[in-house]
Amino acid sequence: MPLAIRVCAYLADLLDSVSDFIGRSVSWLTIIMVVISCIVVVLRYVFEVGATALQDSVTYMHATVFLLGAAYALNHSGQVRVDVFYRNFNRRQKAWVDAIGSIVFLLPMCGLIFFTSLDYVEQSWAVKETSRDPSGLPFVYLLKTLLPLAAALLAMQAIAECCHALATLMNPHSEQDGEVDHA
User: Fold this and answer.
1) How far apart are CA 39 and CA 37, in angstroms?
2) Are 163 and 15 in contact (CB under 8 A)?
3) What is the C-alpha to C-alpha distance for residues 23 and 150, in angstroms, rounded to an integer?
4) Are 69 and 26 in contact (CB under 8 A)?
5) What is the pTM for the complete model shown?
6) Is residue 130 part of a domain?
7) Of residues 71, 101, 68, the one with CA closest to residue 83
8) Choosing a second label site near 57 at 20 to 30 A (CA), which of 75, 134, 165, 177?
9) Does residue 40 lie within any of the structural domains?
């Protein structure tokens, strides 16, 4: 196997492993969210006690799962895809679509989100922004920090997708043009 293909595959695997680690780690928050939501319901309807901070924590965890889990979803083809043509493409055609889609659409979108959110996050950190509700969580600035972080992780996974596609396109044995990959 040529060196360029091995380097692309190694880089893609390395970036995939980062996305996998982060995605699997934040997925545990979903269990915690269910438990806390049950506690909030019991507190409210059985004991007639409000728990704004607990409700805020569910919102924070929900945002964390979606924002930091996006790269994991992309890595495992969990994104929404118009599959009318793609499913009938062979492996090389899919690699072209994945590479072009990542370069033309996904990477610019990640750059836009990353750079436009920096001022927003910086302002939040400058004042150590807190919840508007007095009994809410005081860490809004941490929540807002997830925006550029999510964009960076998604861009990293887009680069991994490009590397996978490049490795497929550079490998003359990846698949004959007429064969269809139904994976």
Assistant:
1) 5
2) yes
3) 11
4) yes
5) 0.86
6) yes
7) 101
8) 75
9) yes
Length of the chain: 183
Domain of 107 in residue numbering reads as: 3-170
Domain-embedded: residue 137: yes
Q: Give the CA-trace dihedral at 123, 128, 134, 135, to 10 degrees.
A: 120
- Per-residue DSSP letter, 79: S
Nearest to 154 by CA among 57, 34, 69: 69
pLDDT tens for the chain, 183 residues: list them. 678 888 888 999 999 999 999 999 999 999 999 999 999 999 999 999 989 999 999 999 999 999 999 999 999 987 777 678 888 889 999 999 999 999 999 999 999 999 999 999 999 999 999 988 888 888 999 999 999 999 999 999 999 999 999 988 988 776 554 444 434
What's the CA gap between 29 and 133, in Å, rounded?
Answer: 23
Farthest CA pair distance, the chain? 67
Question: Which tokens go with 173?
Answer: 């044995």
Phi then psi dihedrals of residue 96, to 5 deg:
-60, -45
Segment 2-6 long-range contacts (CB within 8 Å, at least 24 positions apart): 2/170, 4/170, 5/167, 5/170, 5/171
Tell me, rounded to whole angstroms, the distance of Cα 108 from its chain centroid.
15
Overall domain count for the chain: 1
Extract the tokens encoding 174: 């990846």
Which of 170, 168, 163 is CA-nearest to residue 183?
168
Is residue 175, in this structure, part of any structural domain at all? Answer: no
